[in-house]
Structure of L-serine ammonia-lyase:
Amino acid sequence: MVAAAHFAALLPTGVERISVHLYGSLALTGRGHATDTAVLLGLTGARPDELDPDDAAAIASEVRARRRLRLPAGGEVPFVPASDIVFHPRESLPRHTNGVLFSAMAREGPFTRTYYSIGGGFVVDEEGLPLGFHRRLSRRLRSRDRQSSG
């Protein structure tokens, strides 16, 4: 979800189509661990530190039923999770076995980004830089824990 939300936030205007390719362990366990649903939610702009779990199923069901994805910056694109999320269980990307490649076709041409799930819920981009979600979540959890214990 983190990588998908990051990708969605970077999308240029005029996106006409999005596809997602999951590699290695992300593909092997993807459906069983709801990785496909997390990707779908992230592409709508949902983030794990902000999404109410009670809303997740409704959002995912709506995308699957309508076969359209509402983009965070506005607009919609056709999106059929069964065909637009592709699983490559026997392939890995160069930097890590748990890779995901996002691709969008926009008016200006293709727009792609690659991310890696490196364990413990941590995600890095193609340069190996961590996505900032974890620092914010960590602070939020520490703050919540202090309030509940005090």
The chain has one domain: 2-149.
